[in-house]
Amino acid sequence: MGGRSIVEPTFPFHYIGAEAALGELFTNPTFCKERGQKRNVGPGSNGSSMYKGEAMAHLRKECPEIKRKDHSTLELMVDWFQPFKTSYSIGVVGGRVSDVEARNRGKSYGTVIFSIIPGPSQPGTMTSYLRPLVSELSDLAMNGMDVLQPELSSQPFRWHPVCWALLADSPARSKCANLVGLARNEACAWCSFEGVYISNTDRLGGAVRFFGYDTGVPQTLRFNSERMLVGDERLEVSERVWRDRGRRVATAYATAAESGRHSDLKQAQLLEKRLGSKGENIFSIVLIKTLYVCHR
């Protein structure tokens, strides 16, 4: 449009907004009583605070401000559900503030919904759906938002929610990270171990299976068919590598769009399949101070 490329969601979706949703938390007395007040519970005790853990120690190196009472960690949550007992899927992007008593981190008074993605099916990637949220969260982490928490201050203050984790199952994580998905040969986000396509014996089609836990599997793409086990250090893939792969794929598709040649599009598609990325990760495009993608 007007010489500019426009990225739009495949489906319309309802975006509530980060500041609007998070602001509602401070209307709850229980949340206000706990936020920022339960950080000193040591590791090993029942309900120990994540603020005493190893991950938080690393986060403090990247974002020293997180130890201040006007900063809190925030975890994004992404999942889909089927409300009609059919394949019709609705997506929900939510968040929870980690800066409460450990045993209460999953309670409703510390949890918000940022956006709802209607069906009937899941999008192939979450980039365009997450873009406004990640952009707004990045701004809030840097500049804060005005809140009132009587248990901490009698006056309004600037609160900085810092997004540091994404909680998602494997399919949702792949969509959020803009990866090709779980049905490809290299489905892991942390290593380049290759799966093996196994045909179904009772019907058409098949699936990629992952072996290599007791017997080595030939790694044909990068190691000249050397047999390797899961966990081999040479297979590790860093976040920097994924960012580079995403940029290469995005550049290839941009080149294909500019040239209009089918051969360039084909090359971009082959590159996507080989590298396992659909393009740049939204968390790399719009930088939050620190983000860990966690798998559960």
From TrEMBL:
Domain of life, per lineage: Eukaryota
InterPro entries in the cross-refs: Transposase_21
Protein name per its UniProtKB record: Uncharacterized protein
Organism of derivation: Volvox africanus
